[in-house]
């Protein structure tokens, strides 16, 4: 949610945030080939094998659906040293990795689009 907000604030682009199950049950139909979808998979997969299997299968279904549409899919990557250090931490710390990545990415997109993130064109 916070990363979508950063894209709206910094790059002045329409951005939305959905959970895995939520996008599979509706908003996925609104995605087309000009869209860019950022996937933020869980840093720490579910603990139980059945839950892990279901999570990975649903993520695979989402990626296959997005590939059929032909949109751009971006998945942040982190060095193994950072992932290993984050592994024992609580889930909210894992989210901080994506927040940090999202802020820098939104800023980069703003500059690429020649948008000054410090100026609101609507005020």
Q: What does it look like?
A:
- The chain has five helices and two strands, in the order ααβαβαα.
- With 123 residues, it is mainly alpha-helical.
- It has a two-stranded parallel ribbon.
- Helix 1 packs parallel to helix 5.
- The model has no long low-confidence stretch (mean pLDDT 89).
Descriptive key words:
single chain; 123 residues; mainly alpha; 52% helix; 5% strand
List strands and helices in order, with pairings.
Blueprint (H helix, E strand, L loop, with lengths): L1 H9 L9 H5 L11 E3 L10 H21 L2 E3 L5 H7 L4 H22 L11
Parallel strand pairs: 1-2
Helix pairs in contact: 1-5
User: Distance between termini?
Assistant: 24 Å
Q: How are strands sequenced across the largest beta sheet?
A: 1-2
Structure summary, number of beta strands: 2
* Main β sheet profile: 2 strands, parallel
> Which term fits the overall shape?
globular
What share of the residues does DSSP label as strand, in percent?
under 5%
- The helix-strand sequence is HHEHEHH
- Supply the helix-strand structural class: mainly alpha
Q: How helical, in percent, are the residues?
A: 40-55%
Averaged pLDDT, please? Answer: 89
Low-confidence stretches: none
Count of DSSP-assigned helices: 5
Determine Rg (CA atoms, Å). Answer: 16 Å
